Amino acid sequence: MISVSKTVTTFLGAICVAVALGSPAQAQDARVEQERLAAHIQRNPTDYESTYRYVTISTELRDYEAAIGALERLLMFNPNLSRAEKELGFLYARLGAYGLSAQHLRTALAAGDLDPSQAAQIEAQLPDIEKRTETSRLSVRMHFGLRAQSNANYFPANNLFQVGGVGLASPGARKGDLNAFQLVQAAHDYDFENQRGDRLETRVTAYATEQFRLPQYSVALFGGSIGPRFFVPQDLVHAFSIRPYLTGAVSMLGSNNYLNTGGAGLSFRAEFSPDASVDPGFEWRSLWVDPGRGIFGPPPYSTLSTLATGDVVTGYVGGTYRIWENVRLDGRVAYSRANAGYAAQSSDQVDVQAMLRLEVDPPHPMIARRWTIAPYARFTHLAFDMANPLVNPFVARRDAAWIYGMMLDAPVTDTFGFAGNLEFARNDSNIPNFKTQNVSVSFGPTAKF
After folding, report:
1. pLDDT band for position 351 (50/70/90)?
2. In principle, which of 108, 182, 323, 351 could form an S-S bond with 327, CB 3.0–4.6 Å?
């Protein structure tokens, strides 16, 4: 397992180094070529291929205004250029001008002279763009499939437990298992139709698994949030918004209700450009955990579980940045303070995660949407305030968890596709009960409406 961890770490590190070192040099070369082409098409305004090359480079440099200006100049000389209409449509969508985008894409499609792969690109993305112009917008994504785990019962890596500070060797062992899973994510936006773009955002997630060999570890989760997003007029960044919201979740473990949460939060979003944004915020949640689900846990609060009845306050900063046209980096840092009804279950947690999204061309030109390969990593440090006498009366628990993985999103049509995930998880703890390792693989079809 350790070799797998080191391999994935090295791979993720190599990608990040390549991005950090390669981006400035490539950008400089692209700018030189952009300037050369700009001078050329200024003298030769009807050189279509040079103009399209200029548009491609400008888009890679995120100089969208320059690309749009070149395409509109082409259409002034020849209003029947379907490819220019198509490129304009996608550029306006990137800038958030969805009405103009849909207009240009419909014009390009109606001309009937695009090659089949270009027409397929428009047909795949036009419904999403048109939906963004509606007052009430609903989108749903579903993912179903099978997941295999090497440690489905989350057994300690060395088969050792501590109970009351006494080490015990378990007669059991780690068990692998296969489960069927279902994931449904729904997002609804209701536009208030004012000049700022304020809207009401509702998000809902439902997730369930059915373990084949270990049904007691099957889970079901239903959660959601609702709140308005208000855009604040200002001149410092591209767009700035505030979103107060209510949130809650209900979960089941096996056939029993396990964890219920409810709370509220306030998030902010500063969009520096269409390709870069920062999302800080904070959230409070009240937690209720069924004490009967904790091992050796006499009511009402004393359990061996990581979660406990109480409340959690979280502060976080997330962000996204499109490094190149087909490379995007997402990240999030969070700190949580959990105050449990039982003092030994109160804790501090720091969570850091990052994902690099690499968009690649699909294996066939008639597949209109790009595929996404996304390596990711996550580190979580968990520290409890005091020792739990049920586990070890002398040692307060400290965990350092690492997760590495790779996700694949492979759309086949505008509605259907496939997605998969390979993940290695390791939790290093000073209490042997919580020292675990797990490798999981999942794959299945997706549907988007």
Report:
1. very high
2. 323
Q: Are 339 and 346 in contact (CB under 8 A)?
A: yes
Give the distance between the most distant pair of CA atoms in the chain.
84
Q: How far apart are CA 228 and CA 266, in angstroms?
A: 10
Three-state DSSP state, 402: strand
The answer to whether the bond into 299 is cis (omega within 30° of 0) is no
Residues in the chain: 449
Q: Positive or negative CA dihedral for 401, 406, 408, 409?
A: positive
* pLDDT tens profile 136-183: 999 999 999 999 999 998 888 777 777 777 777 776 788 999 999 999
The pLDDT of 303-308, averaged and rounded, is: 73
| Pick from 131, 125, 204: nearest CA to 415 | 125
Between the alpha carbon of residue 64 and those of residues 75, 93, 95, 325, the distances in Å are: 17, 11, 8, 11
> For the chain, first and last CA: distance in Å?
39
For 415-436, give the DSSP string: SEEEEEEEEEEEEEESSGGG-E
Q: Residues 196, 231: contact at Cβ < 8 Å?
A: yes
Round to whole Å and give the CA distance between 274 and 96: 8
d(CA 203, CA 226): 6
Q: Would you put residue 164 in left (φ > 0), alpha (ψ -120 to 50) or beta?
A: left
Q: 308 near 342, Cβ under 8 Å?
A: yes
Q: How far is CA 363 from CA 328, 370, 374, 412, in A?
A: 21, 9, 17, 10
Helix (H) or strand (E) holding 257: strand 256-273
Extract the tokens encoding 101: 């985008």
Q: Is residue 407's pLDDT more than 90?
A: yes
Give strand pairing partners of 422.
406, 441
Residue 441 phi, psi dihedral angles, 5° rounding? -135, 130
DSSP assignment of 141-202 = EEEEEEEEES-TT---TTSEEEETTEEEE-SS----EEEEEEEEEEEEEEE--STT--EEEE
